[in-house]
Hints:
Layout: H1 33-47, E1 53-61, E2 66-71, E3 77-85, E4 91-98, E5 103-106, E6 113-119, E7 126-134, E8 137-147, H2 169-184, E9 188-189, E10 194-198, E11 203-210, E12 214-222, E13 226-234, E14 240-244, E15 252-257, E16 261-272, E17 274-284, H3 298-313, E18 317-327, E19 332-339, E20 342-350, E21 354-362, E22 367-371, E23 378-384, E24 387-397, E25 399-407, H4 415-429, E26 433-440, E27 444-451, E28 454-462, E29 468-474, E30 480-484, E31 490-497, E32 501-511, E33 516-522
Amino acid sequence: MKLLLLTLALACSSSAPPERTPRSIGDLGPVDALARRFGRVQRRMASRGYGRATALQRTFVARNHGAVFPLEPTPGVCTTTVALAGGSVSTLRMRLYDENGELISDDGLEGPGALVHSCQEGRTRSYLTLSTLQGSGAVVAAAFESASGAGEGFDGLFEGVVAPASPLEPVRRMLVEAAEALSARGLEPDGDAQFARLAQGQQARATLQLDERSCAVVVGRSDASLRDLDLHLYDRRGAEVARDLGVEEEPRLEFCSVDAWTGTLSAVAFAGAGTAGWSVWKRPLGDEGDDVETAPPARAAVGMASIEAALLERGFRPEGVRIEGSLAPRQSESYDLDLGAGCRWIVAAPDESLDLDLYLYDDDGVRLDRDVRVQPSARVGLCGAQRGVRIAVKGYGAGTFSMGVFAAPDGQQTLAELRRSEASAPLLARGFRASTDEEAPSTDVVRALSIESGCRGLAVGGSERIEDLDLIVEDGEGARLAADTGPAPWASATVCVERAQIVRFVVRSVRGEGPIAMQWLEGA
């Protein structure tokens, strides 16, 4: 059972607003199992002091597609929107945006239930989005209005209404994260994710089919106890046509065919035992057969030159390592590097037809860092004594890339500080001034800051064991003012106020734990 991340630090005063007749923009449809389960949620909201629903809606959300609804909040009250999905939906995502497209609130939950809470001073139209990347089905939702400070909180709201988290949930969650990146790359899911419990040496098999002129991308994930998961793809005769034997728990392989094709996918537990999962995504084969030009990667080199210029301005030094390469859909490359002592970024810039992922390993095959974000470039960091490392380059699509190594300024001694510098760079470029630095020993940090007027910013970077770090800024009533929740081990956020108030900067480690380097900044 998932716990809601919003327990009411979102609360404010105590008196309830006048009883209002729901302004229904729909209804909850037939009294089926989904409506009955949602009725339990409604009754809990009422018993906790959030009043009656002022807007009801039932819709259908298909995998990789969403729905948008306008909301007109009443001035001076808080709005809580709750949604529940049925069918095969395993993860429902709900976000609230203002009329300018700025994110107001993000449910941040895992599972078929979602909730966002917002307190807005003015009567500004906002827009609610519902989406799912795992499964399809009907969704029912309701908006509740309550006075500022009313309500007992949302912890356990969905208890008994949605299934508790299973041992598959960590792996399912990682596949959902991968699905967001694959969807952004224009791929379409082929069925639901599959799961298996594997002991070391065991394998699970599944049939994979391709239409004419199409490509399949298979991504695998496993829990911490299954340390090395391998993927193999065989044709009808049993000949291996693709593989990923990386020393990791996040394998990926890609295969394209001009003709209709049927083969067998095999997921093998090479080291450890635990839960494995995989999902299949497809895309059309390019007009040129996805062949890669072997000419010099001019467009990638231009991108690298831009990155190098920006790093030089920040005091980084190029180390004379430059790798030019190309990738086909079924290909990955790895390079052995001998790096000196200190901190450095290893950066790769692809051309526009290729999206790169970077993985950094030590001599023993232990992963040190990775970058799997959907970005124009990818980078991994390393700090410490002189050592040999291996850099693995994986691509989505086909194209060329340029890769270089850049040493950090002498003041950066740890990977957390190196990552923090990446978070603070955009703020410094906008005219913010660095004020104070600190190191937080824990992975969940809350700092309350009294601001008289003007702008303040915070940049944070996680240590080696942190893979994803989020930063959220809230006002004194718990309403979100700003956030950086991207899939990176660094984050930054700013807030500007016209009159004195107390704001909270909340730093959360989404994956991993360890020290966090923090830098406070002041607006120009």
